[in-house]
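Q: I have 236 residues here and want to know how they pack in 3D. Can you give me a structure?
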Amino acid sequence: MALLEVADLDAQYGRIRALSGVSLTVDEGEIVTLIGANGAGKTTTLRSISGLLRPSRGTIRFAGDGLLKLTPDGVVRRGVGHSPEGRRVFARMSVRENLELGAYTRASRSEIAEDFERVLTTFPRLRERLVQKAGTLSGGEQQMLAIGRTLMSRPRLLMLDEPSLGLSPILVQTIFGVIREINARGTTILLIEQNARQALSIATRGYVLEVGKIVYADSAANLMASEAVRAAYLGG
């Protein structure tokens, strides 16, 4: 059984159709990537899974249970974490406070403390800036904080929306190395990434979205080798 199953998903903003019959699966332990041009529906897919947008049709199941009737915090409690595009850190709060907010659905103080230490080990820069206001961090540090905050919910599935957006090449390599590390520790990942080549280089499988529809679905290696995908998304 797939950890995440999305079937025949339609979603819209007012009269604008954003998704048309999107179906995808993510198995336990995988890194699966969604690639496509801006406006293709990638972010809408993640927003639908996390409960931020109510689809007009379709089903979403996680570990066998339906998610569509749950509130966003209910989705988090089930084990789905969402690090959104644009980082969305709480700028006037400290790094520590941002991380603590990530664990707001949890009760075990000892487990929260364990995960807090794990996040700081994964992102040593955050340890140095625990009392600093999040809004004063660099772009790369804010991205680390956004991912770390999501990890504080201890998700089984971590959804990442454009984690490398606006970062320098060196920081991009750092972030993707961390994504590999998080996955190696047992967290399943659904990744949206404008840098399609980079995303496919670490993914197990991939889906290509065009105008709200999935047009290709295959192993990451096969998508990398596809002439159509290379021409459209990988620079030839």
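Q: Anything worth noting?
A: Residues 169-184 form the longest helix (16 residues). The CA atoms of residues 36 and 209 lie 5 Å apart.
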